[in-house]
């Protein structure tokens, strides 16, 4: 079992504090969901875990199996087993989907143990079929000219090929129609195992109708204010967030970041 531990994490952008003491533990074999109003720091948490230079860690720690994640460069975090499915995936001209994924897979393997081309192609074809993706997308430049839905499927394709230890999926459901949502959810569900843990950031219960979370967390004002099981997300869907604000005495304000 692997474990990602976030303790008392404080993050700022320029002079504005966004995260104000986040505590969270994610084990492999678990699916966690983070929900919360806009502007509470959910996407900031994802970016901080992966080391985006825009976000400054001012206090707290992030460890993966006891190793200090904050001491790692972004590529080292990926090789260590962390993966970020981005809300707005970047387009990279000149690098094909297939080349990108094969390089990412080999970066996590020992020198001399690189995946063979034929094994890679077989696995890629299989995963693309699961995600109902056209085979020609493998040879297109990374996300270039992709629709929003194609970009999200492509993020899940990368997830299934790279097989990280802990994945952070930032609003992977945004912009997806029902059919695409089911396909993307199936891909994530196929990953669930004792060797894989996942943190899903979402605004909507509709994704969690297809992916059953083991733990649900609510973020407000830059910290996790409430945690529970699947029943918590269902209550949020039916009643919104006001009852939590009343229960915890939280003023109706946000920190200005997703």
Automatic annotation (TrEMBL):
SUPFAM superfamilies: P-loop containing nucleoside triphosphate hydrolases. The keyword ATP-binding applies. NCBIfam families: sufC (TIGR01978). Keywords: ATP-binding, Nucleotide-binding. Signal peptide: none annotated. GO terms for molecular function: ATP binding; ATP hydrolysis activity. Residues 4-246 form the ABC transporter domain. It comes from Planococcus halocryophilus. Belongs to the ABC transporter superfamily. Ycf16 family. This is Fe-S cluster assembly ATPase SufC. PROSITE patterns: ABC_TRANSPORTER_1, ABC_TRANSPORTER_2.
């Amino acid at each position: 079992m692997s474990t990602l531990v976030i303790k008392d994490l404080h993050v700022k952008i320029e002079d504005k504090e966004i995260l104000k003491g986040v505590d969270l533990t994610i084990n492999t074999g678990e699916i966690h969901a983070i929900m919360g109003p806009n502007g509470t720091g959910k996407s900031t948490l994802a970016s901080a875990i992966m080391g985006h230079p825009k976000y400054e860690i001012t206090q707290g720690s992030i460890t993966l199996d006891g190793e200090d994640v904050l001491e790692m460069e972004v590529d080292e975090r990926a090789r260590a087993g962390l993966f970020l499915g981005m809300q707005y995936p970047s387009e990279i001209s000149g690098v094909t989907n297939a080349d990108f994924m094969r390089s990412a897979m080999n970066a996590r393997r020992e020198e001399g143990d690189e995946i063979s081309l034929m094994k890679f192609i077989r696995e890629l074809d299989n995963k693309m079929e699961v995600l109902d993706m056209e085979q020609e997308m493998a040879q297109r430049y990374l996300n270039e000219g992709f629709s929003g839905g194609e970009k999200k499927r492509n993020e899940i394709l990368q997830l299934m090929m790279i097989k990280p230890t802990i994945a952070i999926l930032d609003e992977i459901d945004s912009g997806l129609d029902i059919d695409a949502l089911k396909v993307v959810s199936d891909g994530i569900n196929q990953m669930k195992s004792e060797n894989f843990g996942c943190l899903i950031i979402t605004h909507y219960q509709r994704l969690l109708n297809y992916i059953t979370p083991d733990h649900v967390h609510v973020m407000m004002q830059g910290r996790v204010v409430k945690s529970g099981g699947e029943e918590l997300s269902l209550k949020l869907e039916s009643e919104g967030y006001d009852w939590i604000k009343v229960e915890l005495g939280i003023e109706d304000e946000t920190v200005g970041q997703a």
